[in-house]
Amino acid sequence: MDAFWDQVLDFSQSITAEVGAKLLEVFGRVAAEEKQDGSLVTEFDKWSDERLRTAIKSAFPEHGVLSEETLHVFPDQDWCWIVDPIDGTTNFTQGIPLWAVSLGLLYRGTPVYGYVYVPTLNQHFYGYWPTDSGLDMSTGAWLNGEPIHVRSDDPGKNQFFSLCARSTDVLQQPFPCKVRMLGVATYNLLIVAAGYAIGAVEVTPKVWDIAGVWPIVHAAGATWTALDNRPPFPLTVGENYRSRPFPTLVTNRADLVEQFRPLVDRVAIDDSAK
């Protein structure tokens, strides 16, 4: 099994480096169009999506693929990759140097491996976490080859909490931390895993926004809370995940969920009712 995971990591490193290099050549200089859900897409989201899917099929012909731009139905295969070809397309089109390429590998519907590459920062996050898959595998989370772990700090005015664009209403009441808003769902959650922030919320992420970070965040010691009280995984064979949101709170410690959840629950509930 170790040889398999070595192959998975080598593949992830090489294909995201290839795709990232191409995207860096055009970043900030491409036009975007609006999709049905209001998010943006460019010709390079589509190119990246196709390149990643093709590479996966070549390297792992027995594996399925679900991707943001084309394949939204979860396939009936034990192993399936979930692809986000450019997370943070708005940043990408506007020349803001924060966006990512994300890969998640699922076993029987649950992410057990994730790899997120941030080309503009040359940051490579990856991690392994078996969840309830039954796989006998090592666990851990790394950034550029160095182990990462959540910080243990309490909330305070010198601690960061990351919001998404749809959660800014939480600031209508006192909030116990400094806030940041990054425009990239994967990175928003990964900064908790890396110890940069003590919490983050994403109100409407899709499965391609969370599949790659799920193993990394868990392996780094963070607590993941589904704000709709629906377990995100395992995914269901045959279900179309194009439109389903996965409202998520991530905290550095489990005991802080009871402090942050009441603050963010209202915005998650309000958004789901729209």
In short:
By secondary structure, this protein is of the alpha+beta class.
Proportion in helices:
25-40%
Global structural class: alpha+beta
Order of helices and strands: HEEHEEHEEEEEEEHEHHEEH
- CATH topology of the largest domain, by name, is Fructose-1,6-Bisphosphatase, Chain A, domain 1
Provide the descriptors you would attach to this structure in a database record.
274 residues, alpha+beta, D-Maltodextrin-Binding Protein, domain 2, seven-stranded mixed beta sheet, globular
Task: Describe the fold and architecture.
Helices cover 31% and strands 24% of the residues. The protein has 2 domains: 2-147, Fructose-1,6-Bisphosphatase, Chain A, domain 1 (2-Layer Sandwich); 160-272, D-Maltodextrin-Binding Protein, domain 2. The protein has helices spanning 2-26, 43-59, 89-94, 185-193, 207-210, 213-219, 257-272; strands at 33-34, 40-41, 64-67, 79-87, 100-107, 110-118, 123-128, 140-143, 146-147, 160-163, 178-181, 199-202, 223-226, 248-251. It has 274 residues and is an alpha+beta fold.
What is the topological layout?
Blueprint: H1 2-26, E1 33-34, E2 40-41, H2 43-59, E3 64-67, E4 79-87, H3 89-94, E5 100-107, E6 110-118, E7 123-128, E8 140-143, E9 146-147, E10 160-163, E11 178-181, H4 185-193, E12 199-202, H5 207-210, H6 213-219, E13 223-226, E14 248-251, H7 257-272
Parallel strand pairs: 3-4, 10-11, 10-12
Antiparallel strand pairs: 1-2, 4-5, 5-6, 6-7, 7-8, 8-9, 12-14, 13-14
Helix pairs in contact: 1-2, 4-6
